[in-house]
TrEMBL record:
InterPro entries referenced in this protein's UniProt entry, alphabetically: MADS-box/MEF2_TF, MEF2-like_N, TF_Kbox, TF_MADSbox, TF_MADSbox_sf
Source species of the chain: Durio zibethinus (Durian)
UniProt key word Chloroplast: no
Residues annotated as transmembrane: none
Localization: Nucleus
Protein name per its UniProtKB record: MADS-box protein SVP-like
């Protein structure tokens, strides 16, 4: 006995309509869950019955799915407002830039000594010139930095010598300054006594030398 096929049209009987709604809703949510599980799809379903009651299903979160849908609509709306010639220009520019990036990447690999098998003699000569030019610039930069460091060291050495000379001059005048300070304070010390002894002995030497010359 074959199952009678229900025609797809509004069910006039209210009770029958409610029963069909309940069965079909459960079947719909089950199919949505299976689709989400099998295909890792993000699904959200909102269903209102004829009485206004809300039924919902979501594989993640209803709010999250709605927000994602709104963002997608905004992106499509922005693209719709861009004139077609501008889209073509941007696409062409992107293609040119992509090609340049690919070429520069390949050139950089070759400068590192990689992917050289497909180069002919002229291309290898060109690559050699590039390497020589790069090496020359590196050497020049290295020499300039080396000479700058030497100049800096010489300047610091001259500053240290000048500071040392100034300190030496200050040490030479130090005994005279001590005598002057002690004389002002009226407090003789062992240091000033030694200084005076040294001075007196020097004076005595000079006077004896004079007497010998006179004799």
């Amino acid at each position: 006995m074959t199952r009678k096929k229900i025609p797809i049209q509004k069910i006039d009987n209210t009770a029958a309509r409610q029963v069909t709604f309940s069965k079909r809703r459960r079947g719909l949510f089950k199919k949505a869950q299976e689709l989400s599980t099998l295909c890792d799809a993000e699904i959200a379903l909102l269903v209102f019955s004829t009485t206004g009651k809300l039924f919902e299903y979501s594989s993640t979160s209803i709010g999250q799915v709605i927000e994602r849908r709104n963002l997608q609509s905004e992106k499509v709306g922005r693209l719709d407002h861009i004139p077609y010639p501008e889209l073509q220009l941007e696409s062409s520019t992107y293609a040119v830039l992509s090609k340049e990036i690919a070429e520069k990447t390949q050139e950089l690999r070759q400068l590192r000594g990689e992917d050289l098998q497909g180069l002919d003699l002229e291309e290898l000569k060109h690559l050699e010139k590039l390497l020589e030019g790069g090496l020359s610039r590196v050497t020049k930069t290295k020499d300039e930095r080396f000479f700058r460091e030497i100049s800096t060291l010489k300047r610091k050495g001259a500053e240290l010598m000048e500071a040392n000379q100034q300190l030496k001059q200050q040490m030479e005048y130090f005994p005279h300054e001590v005598q002057a300070v002690v004389a002002q304070q009226g407090q003789p010390s062992e240091l000033t006594t030694n200084i005076r002894s040294s001075t007196d002995s020097s004076k005595g030497y000079n006077s004896s030398d004079i007497s010998l010359r006179l004799g």
